[in-house]
Amino acid sequence: MRNFLKYRLLVLFAGIILLSACKQEQALNIFCIGDSTMANKKAEVYPETGWCQVVGDYFDESVTIHNHAVNGRSSKSFIDEGRWQVVLDSLKEGDVLFIQFGHNDQKDYDSTRYTTPRGTYTENLERFVTEARKKGAEPVLFTSIVRRKFGDDGKLIDTHGDYPPATRKVAEKLKVPLIDLQKLTEDWVNGIGDEPSKAMFLWTEPTDRFPNGRQDDTHLQVEGAKNVARLAMEECRRQHLDFSERIVLNN
Fold it and tell me: Which of 6, 115, 213, 222 could form a disulfide linkage to 121, CB 3.0–4.6 angstroms apart?
């Protein structure tokens, strides 16, 4: 009898260890929707880099990033062009959805992209969240990263208006995790300062492709994208989001 009980205990412990190992190795798919500050970039525009292009560097090998963010898209055009439907059709239970719009939603001169913060922008974010949840996926909202625009006082000037507050409202209303990249990147860029922060954004020397160089205060260079991705993942871990145990920050 004693040997039988020992055998049962060994089988039980082995089962627990096996289940734990399987849980750790279970694949996780993270889908990203948003604009050019997140998007994958072509080699010819190097060193321009979207932060979701490198965010996979901050996860273990069980995570796969599916980056559907596209240059120039707003929450409206992403839906109207059928891009959201493609992502929605791919989502399944247990997946994670990163959502960051706002840069192009504020372009009131373009009816194909413009949304109102408390109106169509809010409605679109709520649609992403509710439809993703119906598929069993976990949505995470991100406010837009800052533009590098410094005032005479040496501090960043807000260029996003009511869009980040609207995102925060949606997160509060629908109980969605919120990563406030507007605030995180504002603190980060202010800490670097005006001139030094050019090395994070797309300020580049003249080349054959760009004979005048680039002076771009919206998009990121490789190091800037890595820093933004790290800030985002540090905040995900601080909030103990479900996938945070898969985050690796020693890169």
Answer: 115
